[in-house]
């Protein structure tokens, strides 16, 4: 398995609170991604990064921010969590040389009450 | 808009049978098509990809067929095993340095012993 971990794996939080999810990789891959997965939808891209301090929005970026201060870490922050952000969040990485093969982390299940 | 989807949400097969999972796509400009497998409680795992200039590609026990005339993609799994039980996603990717796939909703494959 690719060296990619996510923390926490499960979290329950209240509406209006800030939440930060962490993705950590040991593969030194340039590209990192945050997706959310919901019933009835495919994986939807929230934000992605193409290098340290280089990030861009995906199709469902509203309400989320990201930061990448080191190659190995990509943080996803919900500034003020809402119930619509209850979901399973996946981090993924890939390397330009193998561009089609994204490696996914184990996911974080977030519940906003 | 452009979309990637799957014909069947659930497919049940007997162990040892061959499985065929289908996917329709609408973006004729996509350069690559990719299949992922997601086991319960885990992140998606890359299975195989095919470039748009190919009709068929084989892997270990899997074959992907691409029919550009009808914009149809299929994943064939030979001699299906209980360990193949999972959700299978197709995804498409464009050219021009875009490393971001668009995912379909997924088909659940259930293998009965």
Structural class of chain A, please?
Answer: mainly beta
Low-confidence runs of at least 5 consecutive residues of chain B: 1-8
- Average pLDDT rating of chain A: 93
How much of the residues of chain B is beta strand, in percent?
A: over 45%
Q: Give the number of helices of chain B.
A: 0
Radius of gyration of chain B: 13 Å
Mean pLDDT of chain B: 88
Fraction of residues in H or I helices of chain B? under 10%
Q: Provide the helix percentage of chain A.
A: under 10%
How many β strands of chain B by DSSP? 11
Largest interface: A-B, 24 and 21 residues
Overall shape of chain A: it is: globular
Q: What does the largest sheet of chain A look like?
A: 7 strands, mixed
Compute the separation of the termini of chain B in Å: 41 Å
Gyration radius of chain A, in Å: 13 Å
What does this 3D model show about the protein?
The complex is a heterodimer of chains A (113) and B (113). Chain A is an all-beta fold and 113 residues long. Helices cover 0% and strands 55% of the residues of chain A. Chain A is built from no helices and 11 strands. In chain A, strands 2, 4, 5, 6, 9, 10 and 11 form a 7-stranded mixed beta sheet that branches. Chain A has a 4-stranded antiparallel beta sheet with strand order 1-3-8-7, with no helix packed on it. Chain A is globular and about 40 Å long. The model of chain A has no long low-confidence stretch (mean pLDDT 93). Chain B has no helices and 11 strands. Helix content of chain B is 0%, strand content 52%. With 113 residues, chain B is an all-beta fold. In chain B, strands 2, 4, 5, 9, 10 and 11 form a 6-stranded mixed beta sheet that branches. Chains A and B meet through strand 5, strand 9 and strand 10 of A and strand 5, strand 9 and strand 10 of B.
């Amino acid at each position: 398995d690719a060296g990619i971990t996510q923390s926490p794996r499960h979290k329950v939080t209240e509406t209006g609170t800030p939440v930060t999810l962490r993705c950590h990789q040991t593969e030194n891959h340039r590209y990192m991604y945050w997706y959310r997965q919901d019933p009835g939808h495919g994986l939807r891209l929230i934000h992605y990064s193409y290098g340290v301090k280089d990030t861009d929005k995906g199709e469902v970026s509203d309400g989320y921010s990201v930061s990448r201060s080191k190659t190995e870490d990509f943080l996803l922050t919900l500034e003020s969590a809402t119930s619509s952000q209850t979901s399973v969040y996946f981090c993924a990485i890939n390397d330009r040389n193998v561009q089609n093969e994204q490696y996914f982390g184990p996911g974080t299940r977030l519940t906003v009450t | 808009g452009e979309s990637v989807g799957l014909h069947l949400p659930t497919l049940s097969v007997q162990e040892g049978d061959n499985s065929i999972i289908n996917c329709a796509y609408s973006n004729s400009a996509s350069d690559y098509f990719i299949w992922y497998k997601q086991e319960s409680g885990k992140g998606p795992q890359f299975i195989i990809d095919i470039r748009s200039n190919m009709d068929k590609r084989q892997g270990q026990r899997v074959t992907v067929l691409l029919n550009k005339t009808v914009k149809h993609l299929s994943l064939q799994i030979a001699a299906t095993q209980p360990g193949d039980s999972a959700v299978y996603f197709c995804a498409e990717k464009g050219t021009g340095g875009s490393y971001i796939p668009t995912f379909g909703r997924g088909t659940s494959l259930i293998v009965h012993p």
